[in-house]
Design brief:
Number of helices: 14
Structural class: alpha/beta
CATH superfamily of the largest domain: Thiolase/Chalcone synthase
Order of helices and strands: EHEHHEHEHHHHEEEHEHEHHHHEE
Strand content: 15-25%
Shape: globular
CATH class of the largest domain: Alpha Beta
Number of strands: 11
Radius of gyration: 19 Å
CATH topology of the largest domain: Peroxisomal Thiolase, Chain A, domain 1
Helix content: 25-40%
CATH architecture of the largest domain: 3-Layer(aba) Sandwich
Amino acid sequence: MRDVFIAGIGSTVFGKHPERSLRDLGREACRAALDDCGIERAAITAGYCGNALAPALQGETTVGQNVFWEVGLAGIPVINTENACASGSTALHLGWQAVTAGFHDAVIVAGVEKSVMPKGTPLKIGMAELETQLGDIFPGFFALIAQKHMEQYGTTVEQLAQVSVKNHFNGTLNPYAQFQKPLTVEEVLASPMIADPITLYSCCPNSDGAAALVICDAATAKSLSTPAVRPAVRVAASVLTTGTYDAGRDITGWVAEERCATLAYEQAGLGPQDMDLIEVHDAFTISEIVHYEGLGLCPKGEGSRLISDGTTALNGATPVNPSGGLLSKGHPVGASGVAQIVEIVEQLRGTAGKRQVEGARVGLAQIMGGGKDTDVRASTIHVLRRE
């Protein structure tokens, strides 16, 4: 297996872009990633694109071919991935497999989505499932997780709200974030109730946006960058797992995520204590608290303590979601997993501006997608390391 490096990064601003197409958004992110590392188009020999909703919302398929053509990349193999919220991170996993195995030296990875819908419209993913048809869509299911976590471990609504407050503060420092306004605990709790105890400001928004990466082997990375100017960022681990769909399981955690974390730490030769920053899938406030536990940042049931004592704040021992997370940065479903990597690379390069985590050398990105029988369909974790 060869080492794989993130050579170029690019992203659009996340938010509502009714005037822009999928191709337009993807073109901006891909062009930025290509320009970031200065690679020649001819050196890119494959493309991987994550998208979840285009067939349903825009009636468009094979998104990757259209997006990559916009930046002069044609005649190369293109693979499109759909793994719900993990679509983009799955595209990265496949690109990483191709480079580490030696099939390609340099590939482009993109995630792109237009998922903004009329205000108040829920995103009804998984309508083929009986529970979804009966109304068990994501806000309701995560409300059940929150209620169970509160019952078993004493987590409070104030602690849930603190996740949103933390991430919205971080978002005010991120020019790519959809929301630039800080919130208070009182504002989060007073926002409209969606599914008790999940309020409006406890939910991530539907967003439009795109993000892209150029990944390559060591020799290509060395030819593109000067370490003194731009430190090399290596993919120390890339793992994808799937749920087991045990309907009788404890819903306050995901075995697939725990297994994914164990494999990622083993592959990277690191542990949770070695992470300088982490980006997690905070689709709802309770999600982030549960992910603390699934990633091994604390014992089961103690996730709420980390938000209360400031451990995961921007100036805490282990900052989580310095980008603002999905709650503030936004959630263009197919792009979010790639955007997490863009954030971590900026942090490891030391170019994250006001939200910079000082001395960051190792970062982890976690995102998962889809639900089935109370379990998750796809869970991905990537660990990045500054060399």
